[in-house]
Amino acid sequence: MTQETTMPLWKQDGAKPFIQIKNVTKKFGEFTAVDNVSLDIYENELFCLLGGSGSGKSTLLRILAGFEELTSGQVLIDGVDMANIEPWNRPINMMFQSYALFPHMTVAKNIAFGLKRDNVPKKEIAERVAEMLTMMQIEAFADRKPDQLSGGQRQRVALARSLIKRPKLLLLDEPLGALDKKLREETQFELVNIQDKLGVTFVVVTHDQEEAMTLATRIGVMGNGIITQVDEPRDVYEYPSSRFVAEFVGSINLFEGRIYEDEVEHVKIKSKEAGCNFFVNHGVSCSPNQKVTVAIRPEKMKVTRRKPEQEYNCLHGQIIDIAYMGNLSIFRVKLKSDVIVRVTLPNLVRENRNPLTWDDFVYLAWDDDSSVVLTS
Amino acid sequence: MSIATGTFWLGRYDTVKTRFSSLKKIRWGRYSVISIPSLWLALFFFIPFLVVFKISLAESAIAVPPYTDMFAWNVEDAIIDVKIKLGNYLYLFEDSFYLDAYLSSVKIAAVSTFFTLLIGFPMAYFIASKTGTMRTLLLTLVILPFWTSFLLRVYAWMGFLKKNGIVNEFLQTIGLIDQPIQMLQTDFAVYIGIVYTYLPFMILPLYTTLEKLDGSLIEASKDLGAGPIRTFFLITLPMSMPGILAGCLLVFIPAVGEFVIPALLGASDTLMIGRVLWDEFFQNRDWPMASAVATMMLLILVVPIMFLRNGKKEGAE
């Protein structure tokens, strides 16, 4: 395998995007749901739009499906402007959050619906429906009505129905939202496998960052109608571009501070809240003495009772809360400045002879490359 | 071993017993809840119907009330004479007049129901597609005519439809016709009257089903390649079937027995069973015959509805 084929499309210069969203704005009366969004999505991607409720992610998805008219901007799919193409003529299918299965039709008829509308020969419809039923492991329910199915089964039927026309693009609105935790985890991996097998481009809308992390090739984080960051899951988590992203994806500790030494390869930051100075081994483009936020993930910190030998990145405080989660424990540590810091530690051994406990004084320290400086 | 089995058996017996008693409790609760409407139906529908049915089996007589008794006591020999006349019912079939009246009523009611549906569906759909104040306003407009006397509204239609009425005058003014058209005292006027009067009964149940219709189903259909017209026939129409059925029954049943509208708007030869009933009762003073006509009408209406209900239940399963 050459380097070129393994490199994802979005990292290649001059690769042709499959979906081009150009300066799209959608207003409902005075309310701007989507605000001047531009985004390229490439073929075979599993792109996740991640955001809270009211962030505009669902509106953006409905724009792609053709259910919302644009206030301004342009959407191109495979190079074709979608402006005057009705939903029923688009090479797109959608899996609805409520699944929207037709209650008066059997599972088989629900799945066949899209093919029948395209006047596919009866024999081929039967074959393709059977194939889809097998793939989704729902053969046994072919003659049942949707209200006789469990949530997980309905989800499969909805997925089968939206995939049967072999669309170039599949839109999924909170595809796992209605499933319980265990089923959700299984289905997550299954979705990825199906996407890989069929080679369909997926655009998924979700509010669940864990779901986005496991599914996505890239994540677009949305808030207030704006896409704030588009990156691969790891980068969104490890290198959030703004406070908003840092706080939305995973949990994080934030400290206000002021830069007092700004070099190309590192910055030093003074923080009253933290009661110590920070050393971050990446340069920051900012004005001297600027106010910045230093962000550190809870699992990146080491917890010790004895003061570690490092000048920077070392907090001191008292444990006020412990939550035992099984695989890890969450500690809430109160600093002198009354700021509460969240730390997680993996429970590596079953019995700890000298466990950290309530009211213990501890030092929290981390490496130069563990924290991120946020300027916005 | 035996002890274990014994307790097991006891335990099972216990649960069976408690289950049974709780079941009974629930049933009593249910009975008491439905007893009031049941009592109401028995008092004001079933008993009167039995009385009518009894009269229909009597003979017309010049008496007060104008029919013969069903039971006659022969005290001396302790004999109850029961006299049942089936002739009234046989006469219904012998004289084609009654059959024609039934058929004509059913036809007029069916055609009116069809047009009520045709007009009512788009209206209900439109109202259901609106939100907030607009929806409330439109619904109020649908119900508003009920605040005026029904008779007054039918009279208003007479004003519209008569020879020198508003419709004729208007058509003459714009030059579409030279001579006024005979509209009043035709079947056409009866259709207009029935459709107008019963439209709200069609719109309201249709509105309730259409309002509950999940919009994402429509979107899913469009997303899968069905245009608006196909989506309507494949999704919207089948999904609103309960409302259509309820609306049609609410219009059809009273329309079959309608008396006032054909009497006021219809021609003298507009044959409807309600009118026949009236004539038998008040003109001929033949109570048994009138009762037989009424009983037969109930049968004609109830039997198809029962079939419809059964069909619906099977469909649901």
From TrEMBL, chain A:
This is Spermidine/putrescine import ATP-binding protein PotA. NCBIfam families: potA (TIGR01187). InterPro entries: AAA+_ATPase, ABC_SmlMolc_Importer, ABC_transporter-like_ATP-bd, ABC_transporter-like_CS, Mo/tungstate-bd_C_term_dom, P-loop_NTPase, PotA-like, Transp-assoc_OB_typ2. It catalyses: ATP + H2O + polyamine-[polyamine-binding protein]Side 1 = ADP + phosphate + polyamineSide 2 + [polyamine-binding protein]Side 1. The keyword Lyase does not apply. PANTHER family: PUTRESCINE TRANSPORT ATP-BINDING PROTEIN POTG, SPERMIDINE/PUTRESCINE IMPORT ATP-BINDING PROTEIN POTA. One of its GO terms (cellular component) is ATP-binding cassette (ABC) transporter complex. One of its GO terms (biological process) is putrescine transport. Its EC number is 7.6.2.11. It is an enzyme of class 7 (translocase). SMART domains: AAA. Part of the ABC transporter complex PotABCD involved in spermidine/putrescine import. Responsible for energy coupling to the transport system. Keywords: ATP-binding, Cell inner membrane, Cell membrane, Membrane, Nucleotide-binding, Translocase, Transport. One of its GO terms (molecular function) is ATP hydrolysis activity. The complex is composed of two ATP-binding proteins (PotA), two transmembrane proteins (PotB and PotC) and a solute-binding protein (PotD). Residues 19-249 form the ABC transporter domain. Belongs to the ABC transporter superfamily. Spermidine/putrescine importer (TC 3.A.1.11.1) family.
UniProtKB/TrEMBL annotation, chain B:
The keyword Ribosomal protein does not apply. Belongs to the binding-protein-dependent transport system permease family. CysTW subfamily. Residues 102-308 form the ABC transmembrane type-1 domain. This is Putrescine ABC transporter permease PotH. It is a multi-pass membrane protein. One of its GO terms (cellular component) is plasma membrane. One of its GO terms (biological process) is transmembrane transport. The chain crosses the membrane at residues 31-53, 108-128, 137-158, 188-210, 231-253, 290-308. It is found in: Cell membrane. Keywords: Cell membrane, Membrane, Transmembrane, Transmembrane helix, Transport. CDD domains: TM_PBP2. Pfam families: BPD_transp_1 (PF00528). The keyword Membrane applies. InterPro entries: MetI-like, MetI-like_sf. Its main location: membrane.
